[in-house]
Specification:
With about 290 residues, this protein is α/β, with parallel strands linked by helices. Helices cover about 25% and strands about 35% of the residues.
Amino acid sequence: MTKLVDRPLLAVAPSWERLPRTIVVTVDMSGTSERVVRFTTALFPEATTIYLVHVMPRAGEVERELPGWEATYERELAAAFDRMREGLPTNAKIETVTLRGSVAKEISDFATYAKADLIATGLHTHGLFYRLFFGNVATRLLRAATTSMLLVPEGEPRSSPLHEPRTIALPRHDWPARLRDFSLRNKARRVTLEIDEQSIGAVVQAYDYPFAGVAYDPRDDRVSLMLGEEGSAGRQLTHTIGAPASIDVLTETRGRDSALRVAYRDGQALMTFMIEKHEPLWTSEDAR
């Protein structure tokens, strides 16, 4: 069912008796999380306690593949929590919570522990990473939770012609030129970078970084993704992918790029552009 949802959906538990006062909002470090927070607080301004809850991946196998990943991950998560707090109601108590384990189980158990009236979570409707990793979290939560749930899609309804994504496979012989053009038209846009490999699972490597550029070197057969401010001593990151198998650009029909996907033997890297301009999330006409 969650794959068909393109508008906010409220699933009400039998225990629902009043508008929610205590709300758990799942945070997965994507642009959708910010949309979920804004929509939920606008829809339920009576909330007195809001928990921003993130479930980290298990450390074992990730640490073996990416030594030192946890310190970077925690820095990016702290930045994500700070962004979520901006603009939240001043009359509500805001708490951030970080858990480990199975996402659906940990969220459901925490909601029960906190006596939450509602769990709000995002739905990711495009991108292989989201379909494989985040897309099924909402489904598992619906099955596991006894709490009412609010499901918020990541973008506008599919009926909007401006938000129907398409995938463009770049021809290998044209990679250097096409990636150069891609870099020029998207420079400085804010991005999230996710790595998804079978051995380590899905890991968010960077969140809310400015995009500096992407290039392919045919001599070394490597793609380099560069994030961060040029000439700055602040946050900078270069992610290198050897022996890429394919490169796809995910683009909206209006021609604006929404993501870049680089596939290789062991998995894929997905760089997603974050939402820059927030459109109204709710109007009185939506309720008609």
